[in-house]
């Protein structure tokens, strides 16, 4: 996941209405009417916010006749959680930063 993709995903999740949508989709697949009933958002706002979530790659869609069903893209959410966790050292793949010794400053070796 690129930094830009991570930023887009975090921005998408950091909105109260989109967070309600994601909570309504947790563990299930729902069509727009079902999401509206569960999250109590309203159709125009819901459509706009679902588009943001789709563009950020956080939800997947499936069409069945005239209904579009949404579900959380679990693989994508896992990548977002892992990347965010790496910032705090909570990830299985922490971000590695190389550090150069400062010139003119005593540098001590780590004993481990």
From TrEMBL:
One of its GO terms (molecular function) is DNA-binding transcription factor activity. It comes from the Bacteria. Keywords: Arsenical resistance, DNA-binding, Transcription, Transcription regulation. One of its GO terms (biological process) is response to arsenic-containing substance. It comes from Qipengyuania oceanensis. This is Metalloregulator ArsR/SmtB family transcription factor. InterPro entries: ArsR-like_HTH, HTH_ArsR_DNA-bd_dom, HTH_MetalResp_TranReg, WH-like_DNA-bd_sf, WH_DNA-bd_sf. Residues 1-92 form the HTH arsR-type domain.
């Amino acid at each position: 996941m690129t930094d830009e993709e991570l930023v887009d995903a975090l921005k998408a999740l950091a909105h109260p209405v989109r967070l309600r949508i994601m909570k309504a989709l947790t563990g299930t697949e729902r069509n727009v009417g079902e999401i509206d009933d569960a999250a109590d958002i309203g159709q125009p706002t819901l459509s706009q916010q679902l588009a943001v979530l789709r563009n950020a790659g956080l939800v997947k869609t499936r069409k069945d006749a005239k209904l579009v069903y949404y579900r959380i893209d679990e693989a994508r959410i896992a990548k977002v959680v892992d990347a965010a966790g790496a910032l705090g050292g909570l990830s299985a793949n922490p971000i590695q930063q190389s550090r150069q010794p400062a010139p003119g400053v005593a540098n001590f070796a780590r004993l481990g």
